[in-house]
C-alpha cells in the first residue's frame, strides 16, 4: 500500500523492514531513511505507530523480550489485521486493565 507520493524509500521497503527499525537492527543510515519516510508518509507513520504500540505493550506485559507464545500469537493476529488494512478496533488491549485508582 502506498500513499501515492513518491518517496526516496519505497513504502513497501519501509513496511518490510519495520521490525528491524523498531528493534534498531539496522544501520544508522537506514534508520535515518526510515525516519525521513515517516515524516513524509502518514500511512507508514500510522503503521509504525501501531506496531510500536504493540511492541511496547508486549514489553510492558512481560518485562522481557522472551514473549510467551500465546501472547505473541495474539499480538501477531493484531498485526496481521493492521497489515491487511482492516479496521482495527479502537479499543486498546491495555484498556482491559481494571481501574483501581479510586480508593
Ligand atoms: Zn510510506
Question: How does the SSE layout of this entry go?
Answer:
Blueprint: H1 11-16, H2 18-22, H3 28-40, H4 42-62, H5 69-83
Helix pairs in contact: 3-4, 4-5
This protein binds zinc ion (ZN).
Attribute tags:
globular, 103 residues, binds zinc ion, mainly alpha
Rg on CA atoms, Å: 16 Å
Give the strand content: under 5%
Structural class: mainly alpha
pLDDT averaged over residues: 78
- Global outline: globular
Number of strands: 0
Series of secondary-structure elements, N-terminal to C-terminal = HHHHH
What ligands can be seen in this structure?
A: zinc ion
Total number of domains = 1
List segments where confidence is low: pLDDT < 50 over at least 5 consecutive residues: none
> Helical residue percent?
55-70%
Query: N-to-C terminal Cα separation, in Å?
Result: 48 Å
How many H/I helical runs?
5
Largest sheet: none
Amino acid at each position: 500500500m502506498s500513499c501515492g507520493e513518491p518517496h526516496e524509500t519505497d513504502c513497501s521497503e519501509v513496511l518490510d523492514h519495520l521490525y528491524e527499525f523498531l528493534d534498531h537492527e539496522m544501520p544508522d543510515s537506514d534508520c535515518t531513511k526510515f525516519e525521513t519516510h515517516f515524516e513524509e508518509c502518514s500511512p507508514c507513520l500510522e503503521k509504525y505507530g501501531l506496531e510500536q504500540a504493540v511492541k511496547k505493550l508486549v514489553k510492558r506485559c512481560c518485562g522481557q523480550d522472551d514473549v510467551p507464545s500465546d501472547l505473541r500469537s495474539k499480538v501477531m493476529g493484531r498485526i496481521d489485521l493492521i497489515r491487511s488494512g482492516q479496521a482495527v478496533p479502537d479499543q486498546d488491549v491495555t484498556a482491559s486493565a481494571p481501574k483501581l485508582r479510586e480508593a
